[in-house]
Design goal:
Helices cover 19% and strands 43% of the residues. With 192 residues, it is α+β, with helices and mostly antiparallel strands. This is GntR family transcriptional regulator.
Length: 192
């Protein structure tokens, strides 16, 4: 972890490590970000920005196997490190599977989102992660307090059940200048 003084509104800047693929021990924790930050000695914070139904963006619709614009449940939160906004994470769920469950209720799901999915009968089978670097949207620029010209990295992780049903699409928008992405392979198979 690295903390430096920045020039953007006088805010302190941080550098957060984000593992790709996400380590299973971290995925199984109460919060992916809180577990990552704790391992790095960061003071982590999170705040729920929105929980409700919204139209599925094209890339999320493709992951959840629904037509673009279909109503999906979105759970959007802001993640901070040492008081600096570093990520906007949005969990998307198919409304046909999760409307009327605690997944659709406001606030954080206790004890964890993963335990709620299991309690609803969804056993994890596999996941796919994609990564795209791009300019931020106006919402992302404002929420992450990005300077003009700063980019974001979009990590989209889709979790499928053992029946190959897309259960959870997690879109994490990371302030690119505040992250280092560590890429690992299966243990014993790393190569230069």
């Amino acid at each position: 972890m690295e903390v430096t003084e920045g020039t953007n509104a006088g805010a302190r800047r941080v550098l957060v490590r984000r593992a790709l693929p996400t380590e299973p021990a971290v995925r199984a924790s109460k919060s992916l970000f809180l577990a990552e930050a704790e391992r790095q000695g960061l003071e982590a914070g999170r705040r729920m920005l929105y929980v409700g139904e919204e139209p599925a963006p094209d890339h999320v619709a493709a992951c959840l196997r629904v037509p673009p614009g279909t109503g999906v449940i979105a759970r959007r939160k802001l993640l901070t490190a040492s008081g600096v906004p570093v990520r906007v994470a949005t969990s998307f769920f198919r409304a046909d599977l999760f409307a009327g469950t605690r997944i659709a209720e406001p606030g954080f799901v206790r004890p964890s989102l993963q335990s709620a999915l299991v309690a609803l009968g969804h056993e994890f089978g596999r996941a796919e992660e994609t990564l795209v670097a791009r300019p931020p949207t106006a919402f992302e620029r404002e929420t992450l307090e990005l300077a003009e010209g700063e980019w974001v990295v979009q990590v989209l992780r889709t979790g499928y059940s053992t029946d190959d049903v897309p259960v959870h699409a997690l879109e994490t928008i990371c302030a690119a200048t505040r992250h280092v992405f560590t890429v690992t392979q299966v243990t014993g198979h790393d190569e230069f």
